[in-house]
Amino acid sequence: MLLNCGWSQDEAVQVVKSDEYDHLGYMAYVDGTTSEDEVDHVVAAKRAQSYHLNANYEAEALWYSKALAMNSDNAMYKLKYAQALLASGRCTEAVDWYNKYMNSAEGGTRTFVNSCEELPASMIFGVAEIKPVAGLNSEHLDFAPVPVDGGMVFTSSRSDYGAVKRTDKWTKDNFTNLYFVKKMDDGSFSEPTKLFGKINKKYHDGVATMNTGGNQMYFTRNNTKGKNNKGYIDLKIYEANKDNAYWKNMSEVNFNMEDYSTCHPTLSKDGNTMVFSSNRPGGMGGMDLWSTTKTGETWSEPVNLGREVNSSDNEVFPHVDKMGRLFFSSNGWAGAGGLDLFVCKAGDENWSAPENLGSIMNSDRDDFGIWVSDDGRYGYLSSNRQGSMGGDDIYTWTAEGPPPPASFDTEVMVVDAETGEVIEGANVKWAEMTTTSGVLMSENEKMTPNTGMLAMQVWNGRSYVFNVTKDGYEKKNTNAPVDVMIASDGAYKIPMKRIAMVSMNGTVTEAATGNMVGSANVEMTNLCDGTKELYRSDASGKFNFDTKCGCDYKMVATKNGYTISDKTIKGNCEPRNITIAMSTERRVVTVPTRTVSSVGQVIRVKDLYYDYDKSFIRPDAATRLDKVVSLMRQYPSMKIELGSHTDARGNDEYNRNLSQRRADSAVKYIISKGISSSRLSSRGYGETTITNECANGVNCNDRRHEENRRTEIRITSIDNGVQVIYDKDTF
User: Fold this and answer.
1) Residues 412, 453: contact at Cβ < 8 Å?
2) Considering only CA atoms, which of 331, 328, 332, 353 is closest in space to residue 342?
């Protein structure tokens, strides 16, 4: 495969960043003259990375073990060593080193394999037979097959007979070209021939996608303008048109970026959407998947597919099938080792979480470049698994037995547990999980219509967790595998128990005069379960609240200039008027400073700081983020942006990327506490909003710089009329 596209620019620069090895070559670095005595942990890590980029995972693991022996506290070495062990089939050791990494300061936010049990077979294809394509593979790299014109276009580094031989210093193999083979009546393939025309150039050409007519192609090629500002040649996507058997009119697509790689295009069935891989700015880390749509003769500004699809590592070789499912390879999500194949399905707004294609499709090596037929029953994939002829080979797969239905249409009905009557206007949240591994696939939320029936599409191999709320009813949490839902008579019923709620009228007055006290804060504590609600009296001193039958409540009224007053009310089931009288001594007391915020306003979270040049959540910062979690729970309709900032040290672009990682870390922490990801967004502001005098060139101590390494929250959405009230002094 095109290794200089499959890995991040930062990783590439890290390996070749020296005067002696500032070129395209990675294997040349490995074969350099550095003696064993001269190796320190930095050089050992560079050697390990060189082997990694050439898929020699055994050698990679060896050199990372040497690096760790010399620098045992380096968290990134632990991570890379674990990945190399897993890719080389040493799963038990890999899990141990993953745990060591997770226990380090930089761990804790990633997803890894946590057992060496065989990955379950994906329900997407059921059981499938996989075997190498007979007569097609060589002792070189053969990968990324695309069926077209009664045959197949694929990418290969096989010998270019009759031409001047050029060797890629990255791999010490030939540069890749695009080939075509015709499929014979007996299922075998003809002798491969290079595509006719000027499609194959001096360096790498490959990884193509075709329109349905087979006369328009998008493919990956090394930048013809030469080296970028880092000293190596990155990749771009080009377009070509076919005239009879010849490809011509090669031109760059309009969304390529200089100094970043853009590669691995795939087209939707209608040819109007392209998904590709790139390490351009704005991603989650490494190579990310992006999409663009065609308008006329140009493509739109690419959009990152988001953290639902992209990890902090590499997502490459995408393929969109006829059903609109997105297949791709990743080494950032939990898998069997190396690159694993995953699938996401499109939702109303976002892609579902990646689902591993399982132990049948994936090996402990690299598995990538999948192609799926229109009926989803057969296809091809690329792999360097055990038994391959020479590095990457092309395999065919065929699903066995009748195809399981991919999805079912069903209905969910919310009913009264006592009467069986449907409940209109119930708020239904559900999470879609994989049945075998419990991985979250998607989250949704809808309100039941007047029929009480909620139409749903459910998927084979999934389980559904429901959280249902409705005023006057107890919260209902339940889960059901898909086979239980579709086996239900008519609809899957969710019963809810009615709770007796009583509406109360409250009034805050002065004890001596009886005058109304406006703008007083009244905190109501349910003495049954400890839950709290905060109310505020209007100008006439009045407020309204609901109580649950059988539960006593404690009311605490506060206002600057008055003594704090409290009152306990009994939980009988009779509506009544409650008055809480405040002392007329007008003695100034210290009460929490309540601050009101609305959409667009920024809430500064005190002491939510980061270490210099780090993005992990410190224990003291976690305590502060817990207050944000509490506020999110208090206002369930509120959505926020977490904006992170850096100090002025370092360059602007680096600081922007660092602050984005910090904001992402804060978001992940809040999600881990049960807050839906749909309510959160993140943005890195870098050093654009320094809060003190410590700008560029100003000499400040670390304490003053730390004041700028902060995270703030901005309210982006909340129900109309709702104002956020919080304690400014303790937030």
Assistant:
1) yes
2) 328
CATH of the domain at 48: 1.25.40.10
CA pair distance 194, 23, nearest whole angstrom: 28
Domain total in the chain: 5
Amino acid at 638: M
**Confidence at 435, pLDDT banded by 50, 70, 90:** low
Tell me the per-residue pLDDT of 587-618, one tens digit each, with 9 for 90 and over. 433 434 445 566 777 877 766 666 666 667 77
Q: What is the pTM of this model?
A: 0.54
Asked if the structure places residue 532 within a domain, the reply is yes
Helices and strands of the chain, counted as H and E runs: 12, 44
Residues 369, 279 within the same domain: yes
* Length of the chain as a residue count: 731
Is 5 a member of any domain? Answer: no
CATH code, domain carrying 461: 2.60.40.1120
Is residue 150 domain-shared with residue 295, that is, in the same domain? yes
Q: Are residues 325 and 433 in the same domain?
A: no
Tokens for 178, please give them. 């695009």
Residue 507 and residue 443 in one domain: no
Residues facing residue 291 across a β-bridge: 275, 303
β-strand partners of 309: none
* CA-based nearest residue to 542, from 525, 562, 517: 517
Three-state secondary-structure class, residue 13: helix
Q: Is residue 593 within 8 Å of residue 729, measured between CB atoms?
A: yes
562 touches 696 (CB < 8 A): no
Residue 237 and residue 214 in contact, taking contact as beta carbons nearer than 8 Å: no
Q: Are 143 and 380 in contact (CB under 8 A)?
A: no
Adjacent-strand bridge partners of 580: 508
Main-chain phi, psi angles of 368, to 5 degrees: -165, 180
Condensed to tens digits (0 to 9), the pLDDT of residues 491-525 reads 888 998 877 777 888 999 988 888 899 988 999 89
What H or E segment, with its residue span, contains residue 661?
A: helix 652-672
Distance, in Å, from the CA atom of 421 to the CA atom of 418, rounded to the nearest integer, reads 8
User: Which position has the token pair 């006329």?
Assistant: 296
Q: Are residues 321 and 192 in the same domain?
A: yes
* CA 483 to chain CA mean position, Å: 28
SS (H, E, C) 296-355: CCEECCCEECCCCCCCCCCEEEEEECCCCCEEEEECCCCCCCCCEEEEECECCCCECCCE
For residues 30 and 660, give the distance between their C-alpha atoms in angstroms, rounded to a whole number: 34
pLDDT in tens, 676-707: 888 999 998 888 888 888 888 788 887 788 88
Q: Which of 475, 495, 515 is the last residue of a domain?
A: 495
Query: Do the Cβ atoms of 363 and 345 come closer than 8 Å?
Result: no
Comparing CA positions, the residue from 87, 109, 110, 83 lying closest to residue 97 is 83
CB 336 within 8 A of CB 114: no
Q: Are 335 and 322 within 8 A, CB to CB?
A: no
CA distance linking residue 350 with residue 445, whole number of Å: 13
Q: How far apart are the C-alpha atoms of 40 and 69, rounded to whole Å?
A: 10
The domain in which residue 490 lies consists of 408-495
Show which of 534, 550, 582 is a domain's final residue: 582
Q: What is the CATH number of the domain that holds 257?
A: 2.120.10.30
* C-alpha torsion sign, points 142, 318, 395, 171: positive
- Side-chain-side CA neighbours of 560 within 13 Å: the count stands at 3
